[in-house]
Structure formats: C-alpha cells, structure tokens
Amino acid sequence: xxxxxxxxxxxxxxxxxxxxxxxxxLAKLNHLHGTIHIKGLGNVSDTAxxxxxxxxxxxxxxxxxxxxREEMAESNLLVLEAIQPNSNLKKLNITHYKGSRFPNWLxxxxxxNLVSLQLNGCGLCSCLPPLGQLPxxxxxxxxxxxxxxxxxxxxxxxxxxxxxxxxxxxxxxxxMVNWEKWICLRFPLLKELxxxxxxxxxxxxxxxxxxxxxLCINNCNKLEEWLCLGEFPLLKEISITSCPELKRALPxxxxxxxxLxxxxxxxxxxxxxxxxxxxxxxxxxxxRILVNEFPTSLKRLFLCDNQYTELSMQQNVINFPxxxxxxxxWSGSVKCPSLDLRCxxxxxxxxxxxxxxxxxxxxxHLFMIGTQIKRNKxxxxxx
Length: 383
Hints:
By secondary structure, the chain is mainly β. It is built from three helices and 18 strands.
C-alpha cells in the first residue's frame, strides 16, 4: 500500500490486528483527498507505529477505534494525536475511542474550517474537548460518552474575545448515562437542540437560545425544571417526553410555535401558551394542564390521560375549522365544554373518553351520521 504514492482516493482503510505497520503505509500516501474512513485503530498496540499521517487534503475523516483492549487506552491517545488532520478538515467523526482525554489538536486554532463533529462511544473521557472556539462548527453530535458527568466552562473555551460556538446550529446529546450537570452559556445561532436518554441530567438547560427553532428532550428521568427565562422568538417545535420529574418547562411567549408535544411527564404543570400558528398540540399523561385559549389553526389536538385539565369557561374546545385529528379525555377535567362537530369536514379521527354526561351531545350524533353518509375512507372512533 505504501508504494502507491500517487493514490488520490481511498474511501476505507482498515488496520488489521497484529499488523499495525499498516498505519505507517497510510502515512506514505501523500496525495489522498476527499473522504476516508480509518477502521481498526484500536488494534495499534505499539506506539511506534503511530506515525503522523499526512492527510493534508482530506476534508472528511472518520476514525473508528474498534479492536484492541481497554488497557490500550494510552496507545489510543497517541494514535489519535498522530492522526492530526489538516486545517482544511470540514467533517470529523471519532468512534469507540478508548483514550482518557481528547487530542490537543481538537480545538479552534487547529481546525478553523471544521463544520461537523461527531463523538460516539468515547467512554473513558471525563470531559469534552474545548470546542467553543471552533469558528465554523455548525453541527455537534455527542453519543454514548459514559465518562462525562459535567459540561462546564472549559467546553466553551471562553478565554478570548470571540463569542463561543458562534456558528453552531445543530446539537445532539444522546445516551449520556452519567451526565449530571450542564453549566450553560449563550448559543447565539443554535437552531435545533436534542437531548435524549440522559437519565442523570437534572440541572438547568440553556437559556440564551435566541435562534432556537426545534427542541427535543426525551428520557431525562431526573430533569426537574427548565427555567425558561430567555426569549424564544423563532421556536417552532417542542417535544418533551418521558421526563417524570419535570415540573415546569414552558415559556408563555412563543410567537412562532407550531408543534407542542408533552407526553409522560407525570409531574408537569403547564399553561398552554397562546400561539396563533400552532398546528399540533399533544399533551398526554401529565399532572395539571391549564388552557386559556386554543389556537384556531390546530389540525391535530390530543389532551389525554392527564390528572387535571382546566379550560377557560369561554373556550369552545372544538372551534377549529382546520381540525383533522381530535382526542380528548375529560376524566380529569373540571367541566366538559360544549361540542359542535357538524362543520368539520376535515376531521377524520375522533376519540373521546371520560364524558361526564350519560348521553352524547346531539351535535356529536349529527357528526356521526354525516360521516356515515359521506362514506369517508378514514374512520372516526368513539371510545
């Protein structure tokens, strides 16, 4: 392999067990460009084989440290240090890395053009690298990093006059099973934030997210409160599911909100914000829900299995001309509002539980008859 001096494209390179000298052969390929996946880096046991790689024209680099043993953590670090990519690198993935810390070159001054970074299965690292000064970083994904307990100020590398994470738009944290605390600073351009399966996280989440458009929080069992003190003028989608300790999570001024989903948050007390553009509202298995006014733009509405639901007395819950799906459970409601379904030609799915009266309202009977006459291909269901 090392004799192919003029080779320009090499999509995959695998370091086989007991043949670590393969890595030295890769170092001799001076003209590679584009994308390369390097697998089997965990098989490198002799640090003398961790020669600096000449990847000056590589724009996308995937490194996988599969193979080897846990006690080879130090060699993993030396190998990753030696791989040091060029300053033109745009995308970097590090997978199953067994080193105790990340390489020194993983910071802004060495990778000014890095746009996307994924860290996956780097379980022995106790802290994330200082990424805040990566000037071009737009997407950050962190998965299965079991050693991370705290994300603190070092993560932001906030020792200069440059705003940390000034280009970051998308961020994912998933399966961080020991992550407990996030010391948060401002993310000026962040559009999407996803936090999934972080069972020990319980501290406040970021406040200064002026550009946020989509928020997803799932399976964070100890998260108690998201103190929504900041402004979210562009936030369009919120999905919060399976956070049993979360009590409060909603700011009341969300002018751009289109989709709100809160499910299996048994201690949640929420007042539905007034949003003129909301299309989907799905609140299920929560504690106390207060609705002052439903937006008439709704196409999908579900209020089910909540302990207590209170509606404004002036609110006609079914006054939605565009409604397509409706699911209501009044068993925990203070008072059932009037129902008038006769004019909803778009409604194809209907589920009602816990109706207080012994009989269904006349309007509902008329709706059922009208649906049968139209022979709508979709079904309307009364539970």
